[in-house]
Amino acid sequence: ANNFMISDTSAELSGGSLSGTATSLTVRATCTSAINALSGAVSAGGTGAVGGALSVNSMGEGTDNFRVRTRFANTSLSAPVAVTVESSLSGAIQSIAASGSGAGTAAVNGSVTVNAIEADVLTEVTGLNQQNNGGAMQVRADNDADIASLAGTISGAGTAAVGAAVSVNKIGGH
Questions:
Q1: CA 163 to CA 52: how far, in whole Å?
Q2: CA 72 to chain centre
């Protein structure tokens, strides 16, 4: 299995003014994404058996972007308003690669799962002019990336059986 996901989620409020009796203002960008992958192989033979499973899953790795951005800019607030500006990412990869083989003489198999989440989560406030100081200001960026992976093999044979499993996981970004 080979799964690749890119996403660009954004929210922006720019170049305006807020006055009157407003008590709160929220600017929010939220992205929830998931990859669920299952790769498997079963092999059998009278003399020999060979099998393998591979699962590669990526959310925005390399030059492709997986972004959540919120921007609040160049705005004048003349009401006593509480402001919340936030970006939130909930990205998850769940991956299983498993193989099994059995033979009378020799069995060889393996499984590999490679998973990466490379996300940029950005919240930005610039050029804000607040004339009344009655409200609180909250600025948040939350990256809740999660990878759960399992790689496994089972081999059985009359003379020789070999199995190998590898799981590589990476979470990064800004």
A1: 9
A2: 25
d(Cα 31, Cα 129) in Å, to the nearest integer? 29
Q: CA-to-CA distance for 120 and 116, rounded, in angstroms?
A: 13
Q: Which two tokens stand for residue 31?
A: 């992205």
What are the C-alpha distances in Å from 166 to residues 100, 114, 129, 147?
15, 8, 54, 15
Cα gap 28→31, rounded to integer Å: 10
Separation of alpha carbons 141 and 70, rounded Å: 9
Closest by CA position to 144, among listed 31, 58, 6, 36? 31
CA distance 5 to 131: 43
pLDDT at 21 over 90: no
Q: Encoding tokens for residue 79?
A: 């009401």
Say if CB 107 and CB 155 are below 8 A apart: yes
- Residue 172's pLDDT band, with cuts at 50, 70 and 90, is confident
- Average pLDDT of the chain to the nearest whole number: 90
Count CA within 13 A, CB hemisphere, residue 129: 10
Angle at 41 between CA 38 and CA 46, to 5 degrees: 165
What is the value of pTM for the model shown?
Answer: 0.83
28 near 9, Cβ under 8 Å? Answer: no
